[in-house]
């Protein structure tokens, strides 16, 4: 345990707001009375109200940082709106994170917020490590009228959330060296889109490889459980090798395909096995939409709806099928894009042109749970996928009336992500759902999800023909132009409330690679998501 002792020296800058350098101190320091930073040495007047003044913000922050850096944690805690929580957290920062030296450098206040630099030293056993970062505090008005620091864990470190603390010690799991199918190393520096995935893989599989844990300063939850966030590494440990299903050639193509987009996600899988070949997001370090997103998939859902209609004998590619400009169901009037219609056309023509009413017109013949069953029982959507990392596995809820009609074209309550829709195309290509996975289930005896039934062979064959037609002469023709071999595609444009433009979707396969992409708030799927998928397919 680190012991802080000594005194704090204030180094005041030109503005009178300076840096506080800890060379020690104990946890006593202050008396048991209340501490106010807002008296300014004047006779007390009426209880103050309203937001703290600039002077109060400055003085309160100065007093709090002075007390904290000087090791007088009791005084520092009393300068907050939650002394008990603050004192416990400040003590934990010293004792559990093993911080034995601390210098705090306040910056110019921005209204009630004061940013400050932290220069600390971690002293764990024989190891000493410098640790620097920026944090911030907010000054608020207490019920007493005093100006106090609003206590929140992020005062200690900006990455801390409620209930979390910092701990230094041996990591719970060893670091990993993730490799692709050919043994090439995969790093977050080279592939920032995989940063979160790599961290998750370490937490799941670090103890299943041949590595040894390092010494780290990490964020833990209220129960002391590791959250997977490392703040400082004192010694790296020895990484163990973890084989993944990724293909760096495809991964690099996926990252390049979305590099110029503000927001986009793409996933590629291998239809014959379910192996995930690539995962990419833009922005690279943002939320992992590719695996965890939950978006309405728009007309790409017609792949599943089409399979259901053909399974039930409600559609035949070669036979005449209605595609009117409008169709009303459940009290809602549905229409096609640009209000087009296909007179005396076939279901194949309606599928290739993505005719909404061709699908919704069959709603009166369906049960409310028909689409849910098809999605789950044939395509594996909504089952508990055991991918080897955190995923959202799709949702096709049972709906009725207009919502059920909307779900047939990928709106309503239907939610998917690129992983789900890449799997849909892969299922069409192989004729059977093969749960996508990133790490071999043999490593940890995971049981991969299995769909209750394979796709009807006749339906599978017809669906491949429909997707081929869409890719050669339908809405997907432009991005798929020049493709050769066994390929097919489907476009989607999902309307989202509050957005000026729809989310663009595209799912396709070519040979033994299937991919899907979403480009939010962009436009038509063929124009914005199609080129992304095509670039990934060409790399397979």
TrEMBL record:
Residues 29-57 are annotated as: Disordered. It comes from Streptomyces oceani. Residues 265-537 form the Penicillin-binding protein transpeptidase domain. This is Penicillin-binding protein. Residues 59-164 form the NTF2-like N-terminal transpeptidase domain. GO terms for biological process: cell wall organization; response to antibiotic. PANTHER family: PENICILLIN-BINDING PROTEIN 4B, PEPTIDOGLYCAN D,D-TRANSPEPTIDASE. One of its GO terms (cellular component) is plasma membrane. One of its GO terms (molecular function) is peptidoglycan L,D-transpeptidase activity. It holds the Pfam family Transpeptidase.
